[in-house]
Structures are given as structure tokens and as C-alpha cells.
Write a structure and sequence with these properties.
The structure holds two protein chains of two kinds.
Chain A (H helix, E strand, L loop, with lengths): L2 H4 L8 E3 L4 H11 L3 E5 L5 E6 H10 L4 H5 L14 E2 L4 H11 L3 E6 L2 E7 H10 L1
Parallel strand pairs in A: 1-2, 4-5
Antiparallel strand pairs in A: 2-3, 5-6
Chain B lengths: L5 E3 L7 E3 L6 E5 L6 H18 L2 E5 L18 H15 L3 E4 L6 H7 L2 E4 L7 H9 L4 E4 L9 H10 L5 E5 L2 E2 L5 E2 L4 H6 L5 E4 H4 L1 E2 L8 E2 L4 H11 L3 E7 L13 E2 L3 H22 L9
Helix pairs in contact in B: 1-2, 1-9, 4-5, 8-9
The chains are: A alpha/beta, B alpha/beta.
Chain lengths: 130, 293
């Protein structure tokens, strides 16, 4: 069992273009019921991520109307150098990285290109089944 | 966002560049085209003043005023006669010209003649108008609706861009403050400038009291110089004002056009304040107060 077998495919988590406005990014996160969105360019190069937690912290910090934040390009609110896991790495390494960084999701990349998303719960289930 | 520069003027007229740290540009003229003779007189007289002040300008006048409050108000000379007059002004004075258009089917003809096409504030989110403006392939002067937040103007910008337009000037003409009253939110300039496009202050319409006179709009012209100084110090790339040689007899927006006798004084101040602002930017660098992240 490796990362490729457990990760969510690109259709099953929020993957958005950099020019999408933040409101649409949040809607996509709601639709897919996942608190992270990966921002990519047309070649699916991972540019950044947006998470529920980042937006929560911004709402508490940014002193501007919510309607103004919604219309911003989502990339303006993205973490631009997110932690990622290579598609050829092991699940054990991924779990350790999640624990170390205290995150539940890791974008899966291959040479910088987004391939999927590793979510903690399926990873734990897979490791328990081993 | 990198600052974009908009170039206005095709063919034999003088090209005017607007944006970034370039000199302030004046966009002005009588609100409505009243006659061939009047258009020429205004082009000549305003041109003389602009030359004396040392400011580049674009001649503005409209052929159809479609947002009059009263059915009996002057509506304009019409598209055919109006565009002919604007074309003649271009040829005679070598000036770039701008007119708005309020019907999407008029876009193509307007763009054939005008160097800059204007989207009226009331129509700033109408997709058909924005598409028609973009299709002219001419730069677009996009007025912020009195009902719009400055950040929501990004939607209108994106519509223009989606139809191939990347030469846009965003203008503020005031924001509704209750009924029959406008105010200027001076933060709208830095907010609209985050699009990268040049920003413009429409001083005349900002002092308008919309439909305050029952079936026409009023206006407090005395505030124009104050607002012009405020906006130029704030940071704009172009100044828009409608000018008339006899405002009380103007066929359109009589209560908001500025008398030409005041123009030199106002333009001189605007130019000086703009230059001082650029000097301070050069000396002190860009503003270093940033929003919380």
C-alpha cells in the first residue's frame, strides 16, 4: 500500500485555478466537504493551498469587509510554499510529516505537479489494515 | 499587481498615456454634444487652457444622454451626428476623443470613431455593454456605479478582460449616501488601483445631487476644487470634469459642469498636487503602512 493507492484523486478534493475568487474557492471546499483547496496553474503546478484554518485566522485579523475579501483572487490568500509529499514517498513518512506539522492533509506532488491529496483518515485506515 | 499604462489615441491624433507615475491627464469637455460650432469652440478653448497649464487631455462629449430623469430633457444630438462631430474634432484639433454609449448596439460605431469608449456608471455591470465596449478594441473608461463598492468593480474588470480588453481606466464619480446625495470614498482609488489599471476621478459628477431637483439633478459645484485637491493628493492618474462656457445654459448636467472660467485654476492645482505627490513618492518611497495579513 503506497501513497498513490490511498490519496484522493484530483476529482475528489478542491483543485482551483489561481484566478478563482476566494468566495468560489470556499464554495468548492464546502462542496467537496474538505477544508483544504489546492491552487494550481493550467499545467497543474501546485502554487499554494487555502485551508479553513488560514481563512479563520484571516477573518479575525484582516480589517476589511468580508465582501471585499470574497472578491480577492484566491491566490492572494493562499499559503504559497505548503508542505507536500512526493507521490513516491511512504505512508509512514507522510504520517510522520502530518504529525510534525500538525496538519491533516498533504498535497501529493510529482516534480511540482499536483497528483492528489493525502488525507489523514484514509492513511490511518490503510496502515491499520496492513 | 504591476501598474498598467493605458494608451489613448489612434491614427493622426496625439497619443496620451495614462497610468503609473506618468503626468496627470485631463479628460473633459461639455457633457453633451450640443452643436458642431459649440463642440469646436469648447475644443479650442479647453485646448488653449490645457496647453497653458501644460497638461495633456482627451476631449469628452456624449451624443446620447440616456439617463435623463425627465422625458423632456435634452437627450442628445444622436449617434450619427454626434460621432460625425467627434470625428471632426479629432481631425481639426488632433485630439483623442471619448464618448459613452448606453446601448450595446452603439458600441461598434462609437469605437470606430472614439479613441476611448466610456461605460456609464449606471451600466457598469451590464454584461452586454461591457462586452460591446471590449469588442471595440479601444481602451475603456469604466465608471464605478454609484451603487457599487470599489472592490466589486473587479467583477466588471474581469468581464472586460474576458472579452479581450486589457486597456481599462477605472473612474470614481461618487457613491450614493442615502437618497439624492453622493459622497466620495477616497479609499476607492487605492482599492481600484489593486487591479493594476489606472484610476480616474470624475469631479463634476461627484458633486452631483442625483435627481434632487425633482426631475433633474442638482449639484454643488463649489466643492469641485476641494475634491480635486483631495483626489490628486490621494493618487489618481486622470482627472475627469465636464466643462461648459455657459453652465446655466448647458443642455445637459447644467448643475454639475464647471464654468470654463475656473478650469485653468483647477487644472493648475491638480497638476501641481499630482507632481508633488510623485516627488514625495520618489523621495520617501511607496507607502509602507500595510494591512494586517
Amino acid at each position: 500500500m503506497n501513497i498513490k493507492d490511498v490519496m484522493l484523486s484530483l476529482d475528489n478534493f478542491p483543485v482551483i485555478r489561481e484566478s478563482v475568487i476566494l468566495k468560489e474557492a470556499l464554495e468548492e471546499m464546502s462542496n467537496k466537504k474538505i477544508g483544504i483547496a489546492c491552487v494550481v496553474n493550467n499545467d497543474f503546478k501546485l502554487l499554494g493551498i487555502i485551508t479553513d484554518g488560514d481563512i479563520r485566522r484571516k477573518i479575525l485579523t484582516i480589517q476589511k469587509p468580508l465582501s471585499s475579501i470574497f472578491i480577492d483572487d484566491c491566490i492572494d490568500h493562499a499559503i504559497l510554499s505548503p508542505k507536500t509529499i512526493d507521490i513516491n514517498d511512504t505512508l509512514e513518512l507522510a504520517v510522520n510529516l502530518m504529525g510534525e506539522k500538525r496538519v491533516w492533509d498533504l498535497p501529493v506532488v510529482e516534480n511540482g505537479i499536483l497528483k492528489g491529496l493525502l488525507h489523514l483518515h484514509p492513511v490511518v485506515s490503510a496502515l491499520l489494515r496492513k | 499587481m504591476e501598474s498598467k499604462i493605458v494608451t489613448v489615441g489612434y491614427g493622426k491624433v496625439k497619443q496620451v498615456k495614462i497610468g503609473d507615475k506618468l503626468p496627470l491627464v485631463f479628460i473633459g469637455g461639455p457633457c453633451a454634444i450640443e452643436s458642431h460650432e459649440h463642440a469646436f469652440k469648447m475644443a479650442k478653448d479647453i485646448g488653449d487652457i490645457c496647453q497653458k497649464v501644460g497638461i495633456e487631455w482627451i476631449y469628452k462629449s456624449c451624443y446620447d444622454k440616456d439617463c435623463r430623469s425627465s422625458p423632456t430633457s435634452f437627450h442628445g444630438v444622436g449617434i450619427d451626428e454626434g460621432l460625425k462631430i467627434l470625428s471632426d474634432v479629432r481631425d481639426e484639433f488632433g485630439l483623442p476623443v471619448v464618448s459613452d454609449f448606453s446601448d450595446s448596439t452603439w458600441g461598434a460605431s462609437t469605437g470606430e470613431v472614439c479613441d476611448l469608449v466610456q461605460v456609464p456608471a449606471y451600466l457598469c455591470r451590464q454584461t452586454s455593454i461591457l462586452r460591446a465596449a471590449a469588442k471595440t478594441s479601444k481602451p475603456v473608461l469604466l465608471k464605478k456605479g454609484q451603487f457599487m463598492s470599489p472592490w466589486n468593480m473587479k467583477n466588471s474588470v474581469r468581464k472586460l478582460e474576458a472579452h479581450g480588453c486589457n486597456q481599462i481606466i477605472l473612474a470614481d464619480r461618487g457613491t450614493f449616501f442615502g437618497y439624492n446625495m453622493l459622497v466620495n470614498d477616497m479609499t476607492c482609488f487605492p482599492i481600484m488601483a489593486t487591479t493594476g489599471y489606472p484610476v480616474c476621478f470624475d469631479a463634476g459628477h461627484s458633486i452631483q445631487l442625483p435627481t434632487s431637483m425633482g426631475n433633474i439633478s442638482g449639484g454643488q459645484r463649489e466643492f469641485i476644487p476641494h475634491l480635486v485637491r483631495s483626489a490628486t493628493a490621494n493618487g489618481i492618474n486622470a482627472l475627469f470634469m465636464e466643462v461648459h462656457d455657459n453652465p446655466d445654459k448647458a443642455l445637459s448636467d447644467a448643475n454639475t459642469v464647471i464654468d470654463i472660467k475656473y478650469l485653468e485654476n483647477i487644472l493648475y492645482q491638480a497638476k501641481k498636487v499630482h507632481e508633488l505627490r510623485l516627488e514625495l513618492l520618489e523621495k520617501l518611497g511607496p507607502d509602507n503602512v500595510h494591512p494586517k495579513k
